Amino acid sequence: MIGAMRAVGCLLLCATAGCGDEASQPLRLESEHFRYYADEDLPVCRTLLDRMEEHYAAVTPWLGVTLGRGEKIDYHRFGDADSLGETGCEYDDGTVPAGCADGLRIVTTRPLETHELVHAYASLLGRAPSLLEEGLATMLGGIGAAGPVVDASFPIESFFESERFQALEPEPKAEAYGPAAGFSRFLVDRYGREAYLDFYASLAHSASAAEIETAFESSFAEPLAVALEAWRAERPLVESVSTYLYLAECASPALSEDGAELLEEECWQETFPLRVARSFSLADARGAVVRARHAPGASTGVSVIACDGTVHRSLLTYLWPDTGQHELWTDLPAGDYFLKAFAEAVAGADPAVSLDLGPQLITETCTETHERVVPAETGAVAVERWLDPQEPLPESLQLAARLYFDTPRTATFRARAASLTLCRAGCEGEPGAECTRIEPANVDVELESIDVAAGAHAVSVQATPEPFMPVRFTIDLER
């Protein structure tokens, strides 16, 4: 996971010694606020600094900080973990994290590590206790929690002191990042940005538990214990997506009107590619079809995320290893969103991502569902509906979609459901509809490949919803 760990203070050992190969790295790019160094054999995306400057412009005003005249952030990228570890960026057990930050200097193996960028910006506020530093960097870095769900029962109050946090083993330390971000987001929502930043900046890195409690009550006019109890009562278990403040992503350039966005070639020709983000807004609820195209042997990841982080407004991410074009169908309520995409590096690949908006695609009743054409070049379709985790889950839910195949195909259906019904020429119960119903012995359905004629088809899934899981089915298609 990107930025899931940070070896706080590890670079202090190297600051004057010039250990590792950091000092010999060539300067590859430079902008108003950044100097970008990378090993000579690493490809460097020509738009990296544009993305960094966009991130700086979106996040630093929220923090209330700015670099001084002549100051820049030095970003050092290495090609492997061994080289990174030689800089001193490692834990006592020899584990090398994704990156480290010391003041305005960053070392990492990632082409763009937003978690460490936030650490660099926040250093202008001073050094807070380690757990608070990681909570802030995870909340504003948009990534970093050690899993999809944040469990508020994690005893973060036991690790507010830097010494106790640093004494954790790598696995429980990584586990603390999500709850640290979740509590940070709770404080921002409950007390406001200014009170949160006042608390953060008032603390020394070496603050004791008693000093942290005193500063907390001074900034928030409420005891720390009361806030922790309220956090656990209101947000006992939430998805990680709801703990992030997507300042940079939601301020990214607007998606083009036709929704088509090509990934820059130099940006994805890397072991871990640069992600491209584009923002968009919906005045009313719409159906959304995200199309991703990539080369054989490559993977494409696509996320559609709501700027307010609410789960029912999506975290839709897929890695498709097969060749061809793939589609994700879902419905999105009115609101502000961003689309994030990346493609794995494969020679000769021409990846592309597009977003089509139209009538809502998914209903509980087949007859009310809008039909959508599946082009001949599409190799898979995923149909998905997210439920609001704040609402009680229904005991059973039906998901229906109507598809039109313009050519005959061979299809393999997959669903996590109690039953799946495929109908040709109409919905189940309609005159002329030819339907096949599957009721498997378990909830994971994978039908054998079947031939699907050209024309209109309807698919219905009867499922028992699960917490933090979408109701979904996928169709793998072959010509």
Short description:
This protein is α+β, with helices and mostly antiparallel strands and 479 residues long. It has helices at 48-63, 81-85, 114-122, 130-141, 162-166, 170-191, 193-202, 209-220, 224-234, 247-250, 265-268, and strands spanning 27-30, 34-38, 73-77, 99-102, 105-108, 149-151, 237-239, 260-262, 276-282, 286-294, 300-306, 318-319, 324-332, 335-343, 352-358, 371-374, 378-385, 397-405, 409-416, 419-424, 434-438, 444-446, 450-452, 455-463, 471-478.
Distance between the termini: 36 Å
Q: Give me the CATH fold name of the largest domain.
A: Neutral Protease, domain 2
CATH architecture of the largest domain: Orthogonal Bundle
Supply the number of helical segments: 11
Model description:
The chain has 479 residues and is α+β, with helices and mostly antiparallel strands. The protein has three domains: 10-243, Neutral Protease, domain 2; 254-360, Sandwich (Jelly Rolls); 362-479, Jelly Rolls (Sandwich), CATH 2.60.120. The chain is 23% helix and 30% strand. Strands 8, 10, 13, 15, 17, 19, 22, 23 and 25 form a nine-stranded mixed β-sheet that branches. A five-stranded mixed β-sheet has the order 1-2-3-5-4, with helices on one face. β1 (27-30) and β2 form a beta hairpin. Mean pLDDT is 82; it is low at 1-19 and 311-317.
